[in-house]
Input
Amino acid sequence: MVEPGRRLRISLALIGFILLLVNHIAFPESIKWNQDANDITLNANALKRMGDILPNWRIKQITWPSVTEINSKSVQVGKELKTSCIAWLSKFMNKEYLPAELEKNLVAMKNWGLIRKESEQKRLCDVFITRFRRGPYVIHIQESPYNVVIAVADERLAKETRANHKDLVVETATSVLNQNLKPNPDSNDLHVFEVIRDGHKLSKILWIINSVINR
Output
């Protein structure tokens, strides 16, 4: 696992994170964690029906592992490393979406954040994962010092779909993300792309984060 006390060094104008939005089916109001927060949208079977538009490594980042995978890949870590993880996540997320029970529901996974063969992956692939429901959202997080993936399922979309994906992303990001990372929908640095393949459409909204630019 990553040693405690890790620090981020920003040499140029880039911090990257991924915010993925998918349709969601309504759940009871009580907060559920990890495997108990599973749903019919943020799971491998549902996402694989989108075909090649979502690669397998991306699907793995936003779905909860099976019991067998948890047993074989999870490891025990100390409180200090979990505290470091939460401090790192606080740079990305609104405090309202960092519940007090988050620390005890973090699951450390060894060699889990792989996007290519382990022998070819240069960056660290040990990660924390967690999943919870807060308000209308089910949120799945995969955290490492190099990559934070936040998948958000909005249960309201089960009742009312949204044709304007840009507005949906901006609205969700404004609710879930840290103030410093929120997008400006009127900025020239916010870009919308649509990928259509095999009858499926994926909308990608990218924006530059001015607060971390170093000229």
In short: The first helix runs from residue 44 to 48. The helical segments are 44-48, 56-61, 67-73, 79-89, 165-176. Residues 1-16, 23-29 have pLDDT under 50 and may be disordered.
